[in-house]
Amino acid sequence: MNQQLAKAVADRADEIVNLTVDLIRFPTVNPPGEAYTPCAEYIARDLARRGFETRLIRGEGAPGDNDRYPRTNVVARREGNRPGPTVHFNSHIDVVEAGEGWTVDPFAGTVRDGKVFGRGACDMKGGLAASVIAVDAFLAIFPDFPGAIEISGTVDEESGGFGGVAHLAKQGFFSRPRVDHVIIPEPLNKDRICLGHRGVWWAEIQTHGAIAHGSMPFLGDSAIRHMGAVLEAFEQELFPALDRKQTSMPVVPEGARRSTMNINSIHGGQTEDHFPGLPSPNVADSCRMVIDRRFLIEEDIAEVKSEVTAILDRLKRERSRFDYHMRDLMEVLPTMTEQDAPVPQALAAAIRDVFGKEPEYVISPGTYDQKHVARLGHLHDCVAYGPGVLDLAHQPDEWVGIDDMIQSATVMAMGLNALLRGVNA
């Protein structure tokens, strides 16, 4: 049976390329959320042609959702001819901005040298196309399958997924009894199964000061200098402590097997919006920093936060006029699906069949939409598996290999067969 599935996928090689190209040509850039609706409508038409019932669902009330940039998701479902589990393939349709340094048009979907180039080719429109073709090949061989198959194209993953998978998960789209198994075709390499991700805590720290004339700074109090003290304490105390924390999670790359924190942004002083390069000569009375803390399954979220607040509280005691305010922006706990859960087992058997080797089990350094499936849907038989090399994501001249898509689609089709029909061969 697996040979039949492999042939059915291979027979659709041109279709997988054409579908990837078509998807890339929708410039679904986030922010602000361009072209979400036409891309979702295209996917809905394609899946309706394949026998799926489709729905367009707007993430109303989510960050960024408005009439100009509606957060439009597509969910498609095809019922089998008798009861059984439901397998859901979820892909995000949003991409980051193209940026500079491209040698090809980032939204042309250029096909060259066995690759499809374009923004989102790797992350993750190639994965979406591979999942669609995997399902199509499965349906061609097993039209009388049990259970149900779902495919979704969701938005805003690059900015947290709140208008996409989070919105749908709150409505029960990623919970039992509707769904039993979830595969997210993120680009983690075709012979690897990603079981989950590290945790994340985003927070905004604001230091306060007192405005005064820039020629007499002694009459004011610089919030920027206070923030400088925070940065110095982080450099001397927090970063070395984080670097000493190691995890048993198989996080890739190697450098992410420890705790990390990034300073996402710092904003201080008066705006230069109206006169670039000519700010007002004032002492800054406010300075804001956004931190991005990635933590390990061995760490407690309360401890993660206290490491930062302990430094801030000490500075408040030791530094004259120092005051701060901290606001949580996002927190997601680490998640890791067990290797012996049904989805990892089904994909592992398929990887052995296609590649003749044991799969590598990995953990993502950053979060992806599995976080919402787990925390809101309370569904834990979920992994990321798809074509593409993670290092190419968000880069100029991003690409996905055609052979990689075909092989990954073959693995997904075989995995689907095992999950729905209980057959690994």
Q: Could you characterize what this model shows?
A:
This protein is α/β, with parallel strands linked by helices and 425 residues long. It has helices at residues 2-10, 13-24, 36-49, 121-141, 165-170, 223-243, 301-318, 342-355, 370-375, 402-421; strands at 53-58, 72-79, 86-92, 110-112, 115-117, 148-154, 181-184, 192-197, 199-208, 260-268, 286-295, 324-332, 335-336, 360-364, 382-384, 399-401. It folds into 2 domains: 2-197 and 334-421, Zn peptidases (Aminopeptidase); 199-332, 2-Layer Sandwich (Alpha-Beta Plaits), CATH 3.30.70. It has 10 helices and 16 strands. The strands form 4 sheets. A 6-stranded mixed sheet has the order 1-2-6-3-7-15. It has a 4-stranded antiparallel sheet with strand order 10-11-9-12, with helices on one face. Helix 1 packs antiparallel against helix 10 (402-421), helix 6 crosses helix 7 (301-318) and helix 8 packs across helix 10 (402-421). 48% of the residues are buried.
